[in-house]
Amino acid sequence: MARVTYLTAETAPPAVASTVAKMPALHVFQMLAHAETAYRPWLRYGGAILSDLALDPLVRELVILQVGRLAARYEWEQHVPIAKAAGGTDAQVAALDRGDLSVFDEAQRAALVFTESFVRDGEVSDEDYAALAARFAEREIVEIALTAAHYLGLARIMTALRIDPDAAVGPEGLPAARL
Predict the structure, then answer these.
(1) Is the pLDDT of residue 176 over 80?
(2) In terms of CB atoms within 10 Å, which of 11, 12, 73, 148 comes out highest?
(3) What GO molecular functions are on record for this protein (predicted)?
(4) Range(s) of the domain holding residue 89
């Protein structure tokens, strides 16, 4: 059971009620609406991560799934359909869920290894960074790190505040994730 209430358009503070009303009825959006002054900027930032990066959408989604697998199942469940819409396969999703990176190409594998280190303790070996840098431009590397950081921070909030699961809405229900 969640440690804080989920706000709706009717129960949210006036400063964010109209924004809550426009969002999918997901616990993550209803929980974070308590942070009135940060809510809209956080939504804009999350929207930029989902729709405004140079990073390939499938790589972005694989990074998010890796964070979800390691830190918050809620994110995993929400992003599996988005990853599939971005071109991920059932075999890739199943393999990643097992921690098996053998089905991914070298670039995807480098991003997933980087993300695992990022989530576990933040220390990325020189060898793993070199593998990432050989396959991605510096902008993309920073975007991989920003994506991992955003979703890791969110995962920690969800865990600490004990968010309840939601059914996945996929890209159709999350406008910023539409491809």
Answers:
(1) no
(2) 148
(3) peroxiredoxin activity
(4) 57-161
